[in-house]
Amino acid sequence: MRADAVEITDLLWDVAADGVRRPVRRSAVVDRLRATGQHGAARIVARMPATDDVLDPDAVDALGVRVHCELTRLVEELQFPRRVAATLAPVLDRLRAAGPGPVRVVDLGCGLGYVVRSLARSGLLGPDVELVGVDLNPVLVAEAERLRRDEDLACRFVHGDALAPGVAVERPGRTVVVSSGVLHHLSTEELTALVRAQAGLGVAGWAHWDIAPCLWSTLGAWVFHRARMREPVSRHDGVLSARRAHPAPVLLAAARDGAPGYRHAVLEGPRWHPRAIDVVRPLVGTRP
Ligand SMILES: C[S@@+](CC[C@H](N)C(=O)[O-])C[C@H]1O[C@@H](n2cnc3c(N)ncnc32)[C@H](O)[C@@H]1O
Q: May I ask which residue range the UniProt record assigns to the signal sequence (predicted)?
């Protein structure tokens, strides 16, 4: 795999910072994938509907929602909501002890918002926690919001760039940032930018969950995606996610560079008795 290999879903939408969507040329996406030797992915895109070489936006949006619904199976299997709640508990306790008022948890790159909606439904984090999901893709934000309305949940979803400081953060000292499955979409420079954006505001901390790259996680991703996912795009992107995830030393170096005043750790699972769910683990940062 080439270092600059990309997931298909990284190329299907072109959305400006103000949310305005630009047309995406199918041949440009196919050429981009061929250039990095991703010929199978190029064939998947070449079969997608297009008019005058512009990918059909409705078909792309419907595909995006289907792919993220399939991804939710993995998020559910890996027990993300419960594990996010357990990781955040000590930070939230510290913030409550520091003074009264609501605490906010912002999920960056929330996709369909499964983690945020689950936490809102279960109340695991407590009634004083405001839950906000942010995503770069307005189609996913709209669908997350529709699902939230359907269940009348106390959370909300907004369009925004995780790398832009201040997105969905109002009282930084009482805000904790989380993400799941986003870090592998970012270059090392972008990892630093992500952490710097949050640290610059002075947020209380963060827990960014992503895949621990190794032979077993790639193999596991392949098996899981063959067994539980039907969309060729899900299968392609899921396995590539595991292969291009950042190792712990890279995450730690980027985090220390972006937020020198914070304490950092990658909370890996037990080395000698690994559990399947430890295939994902968080990069944690806390303000001393
Ligand atoms: C693999 S999906 C994970 C979605 C969700 N967190 C989950 O676990 O189901 C990655 C998500 O990150 C979003 N994303 C990627 N780069 C982003 C950025 N710079 N700002 C906000 N969202 C971003 C994508 O739109 C996509 O929804």
A: none
Q: What is the Å distance from ligand 1's center to 163 Cα?
A: 12
pLDDT digits (tens, 9 = 90+) for 14-62: 988 787 899 999 999 999 999 999 999 999 999 999 999 999 999 999 9
- Smallest Cα–Cα separation from 33: which of 236, 286, 247, 283? 236
- Measure the N-to-C terminal CA separation of the chain; round to a whole number of Å: 39
Task: Confirm if 207 and 282 have CB atoms less than 8 A apart.
Answer: yes
Total residue length of the chain: 288
Q: Whose CA is nearest to atom 12 of ligand 1?
A: 109
Can you give the residue ranges of every domain in the chain?
8-66, 73-286
Q: pLDDT digit string (tens) for 14-23?
A: 988 787 899 9
Indicate the angle between helix axes 248-258 and 188-201, nearest 10 degrees. 40
Helix (H), strand (E) at residue 278: none
State the closest ligand 1 atom to the C-alpha of 68, by its place in the atom list counted from 1. 9
